[in-house]
Write a structure and sequence with these properties.
Number of helices: 4
Structural class: alpha/beta
Strand order of the largest sheet: 3-2-1-7
Order of helices and strands: EHEHHEEEEEH
Distance between the termini: 46 Å
Radius of gyration: 17 Å
Shape: globular
Largest sheet: 4 strands, parallel
């Protein structure tokens, strides 16, 4: 059986590692729109504020996925899901599944304020956005 998990946040990672704990025979694939192993978004303000280092934000390392035989594909945003054919399509590939878990979280709400899309306006929901903010 192949389980595809869309999303590598805390929920998606907990599903992946929890499934592996219960069954070491199933194939687990995690699709992540981001380029990082699972991290705690609640630590991001402390990272920007230089109270903690970047490595502290991570809950798991890539080696943790490898040790548990969990395949993770980074930078793969899901474009569509075909429930009849049981496939998930990204811009790079199509992935078949037997079971599908949607754990992709939510988008950052940016209020409709004039100038919100100008340079120098940052959100803080993702590590990528936090790193961009940290550069300024």
């Amino acid at each position: 059986m192949r389980v595809v998990i869309v999303g590598n946040g805390i929920a998606g990672a907990n599903v992946a590692f929890g499934l592996r704990q219960k069954n070491n025979k199933i194939e687990i694939l995690v699709l992540s729109a981001e380029d990082y192993p699972v991290y705690d978004p609640c630590t991001l303000p402390y990272f920007v504020g230089e109270e903690i280092s970047k490595d502290v934000v991570f809950i798991k390392q890539l080696s943790d996925y490898q040790k548990q035989n969990i395949e993770v594909v980074f930078n793969e945003k899901v474009l569509s899901i075909n429930s009849k054919q049981k496939t998930v399509t990204t811009s790079k590939c199509q992935y078949p599944y037997d079971k599908l878990v949607l754990a992709y979280g939510g988008d950052l709400f940016m209020p409709p304020i004039d100038g919100i899309n100008l340079s120098g306006i940052f959100g803080g929901k993702s590590l990528k956005h936090t790193e961009e903010l940290d550069k300024h």
